[in-house]
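User: Structure please.
Assistant: Input sequence and predicted structure:
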Amino acid sequence: MARKTGLTRFALSAVAAGGLLTGCASDDKSLTYQTDYSNHQPLKVVGYPSAGSLETVQKAVWRLADGDADALAALAVDDDQADVTARNWVKAFGAAAKGDVTADFYDEGSVRQVVVLYFARSGQIKEIEARIGEDDAWGLTLAEPDPAEAKAEPTWAPPKPGGSGSRTSGASSGS
């Protein structure tokens, strides 16, 4: 009887160890995110992002900092102009994204959110849009094939993050 119990314990231990190893190997998305997070400057956040818009914007800033236009284009919700837009963004903001970046999230973020990125290193300001695509996954609108358009600052955004609140709420910032 002792031999049977020993074999059973050995078999259960092997199954448990195999399950643990499989569990660790199958969580590549989480491991990739953790690695990205530890290899980049933390994103400063103002406003009220949704989980999806925050993750998408964080990844976009990381891809800019890495100079990885292909990975940035992969975040697009529409592929029509994503490759050329991603190259434009990397050229315009890549170096600045290696420093401190603040993301100011506007409006509510259930399906779409306007975000203004403030790059401390260069003083540049960039408006982007995170939204849910046709596949129900969060991504970016990458539709700026003209380099001048891609690096243009938004005319409506305040010069510093958190300066005016939502631009579509109808309320003025002074009331």
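The helical segments are 2-25, 28-39, 51-66, 69-73, 82-93, 147-151.
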